[in-house]
Automatic annotation (TrEMBL):
Belongs to the CPA3 antiporters (TC 2.A.63) subunit B family. PANTHER family: NA(+)/H(+) ANTIPORTER SUBUNIT B, NA(+)_H(+) ANTIPORTER SUBUNIT B. This is DUF4040 domain-containing protein. It is found in: Cell membrane. Coiled coil: none annotated. It comes from the Bacteria. InterPro entries: CPA3_antiporter_subunitB, MnhB, MrpA_C/MbhD, MrpA_C/MbhE, Nuo/plastoQ_OxRdtase_6_NuoJ. Residues 14-78 form the MrpA C-terminal/MbhD domain. The keyword Cell inner membrane does not apply. It is a multi-pass membrane protein. The chain crosses the membrane at residues 6-25, 32-49, 55-77, 89-107, 159-177, 198-218, 224-243, 255-278, 298-323. Residues 121-174 form the MrpA C-terminal/MbhE domain. Keywords: Cell membrane, Membrane, Transmembrane, Transmembrane helix.
């Protein structure tokens, strides 16, 4: 057994044990921490599979922001799960067994793990993306070429989903946030811990600098707008956790965040309109530099990634601040 296979099996065992522990726990805080561990191990698996772009997003969203939001929700509700009556467990158990059995049966048709003759390796489209993209677009990172250029319209649809989900959450939380300030209880506030304050102040510039690196380096290595936007949001989440919601909203006023949420989407779609005005197709970046199409591709992809980063960062930060400013539930 190779070292690669051994590491994968160990990580799979950790994921399985973590999932079983989460299912059995009734203490929701502990289950939340184990969920963060599950995301961290999953990110490690993505790294082993050379999907570093996905691993960055999983680590930032699954381990960072999602965990903070879950803790904020638990602080507003209760920390223990209600006991489910036995008569209601049977349908769930049957559904799990049926779904699990179907997946195991379907998995029999999968190629051998790590085989070199899988469709992913032998299909003609693989050669197109890995080689022809270098001639058409001239960007070393094939993932960025595919996401931002070949399937730019699909990525625009994903950004619309992020925008719509963010707006829906904010609309749901907005009425709850309109409360008497004297009753507002800031749940997420660690400002009394001096060590955290000092370390956070030191880390903030590096977090934001790393987010910019991930954004502008996405053409050459793992990164891009989605990853950079989440890292930006993680920095502001850390600031809000340590220094309080009021200080966070002084740095990023709510009105400014509401403005930034649609800005990225408008820039992305507007770029496509500009391409059409210049005589090309929607999101055809070659029109930005007719004499040097690769330069046009570089410029277009950079604008697209920046647009994605703006909307993702604004949506994530807005949701966090909305949860952080909610009033604690009356017990």
């Amino acid at each position: 057994m190779s070292t690669f296979t051994t590491i994968n099996l160990v990580l799979l065992a950790i994921l399985t044990a973590t999932a079983v522990a989460i299912a059995r726990l009734r203490a929701l805080y502990e289950a939340t921490m184990l969920t963060a561990l599950f995301s961290l191990v999953t990110a490690s698996l993505f790294v082993l599979l050379d999907a570093v772009d996905v691993a960055l997003t999983e680590a930032a969203v699954g381990v960072g922001i999602s965990t903070v939001l879950l803790i904020g929700v638990l602080a507003l509700t209760r920390s223990r799960e209600a006991v489910t009556p036995r008569r209601r467990r049977l349908p769930g158990a049957v559904a799990v067994v049926l779904a699990g059995g179907t997946l195991i049966y379907a998995a029999q048709d999968l190629p051998e793990f790590g085989a070199a003759d899988t469709p992913v390796q032998t299909h003609p489209v693989t050669d197109v993306y890995l080689r022809q993209s270098q001639e058409d677009i001239g960007i070393p990172n094939t993932v960025t070429s595919v996401l931002a250029s070949y399937r730019g319209l699909d990525t625009l649809g994903e950004l619309v989903v992020v925008f719509t989900a963010g707006v829906a959450v904010l609309l749901l939380l907005e009425p709850i946030m309109r409360v008497d300030e004297a009753r507002r209880q800031t749940v997420l506030d660690l400002a009394d811990y001096r060590v955290l304050r000092v370390i956070s102040r030191m880390l903030m510039p590096f977090i934001l600098l790393f987010a910019l690196y991930v954004l502008f380096h996405g053409d050459y290595g793992p990164g891009g707008g989605f990853q950079a936007g989440v890292i930006f949001a993680t920095g502001f989440v850390l600031y809000g956790l340590v220094f309080g919601m009021d200080k966070a909203q002084q740095v990023l006023p709510r009105a400014a965040l509401r403005t930034l949420v649609p800005v990225g989407l408008v820039l992305y779609a507007g770029l496509g309109v500009v391409n059409m005005v210049l005589g090309g197709a929607f999101l055809d970046y070659d029109t930005l530099s007719p004499d040097d199409p690769k330069a046009g591709q570089h410029a277009g992809i950079l604008l697209v990634e920046t647009s994605i980063g703006i909307t993702v960062a604004a949506v994530m930060t807005s949701i966090f601040l909305s949860f952080g400013n909610r009033v604690a539930a009356q017990r």
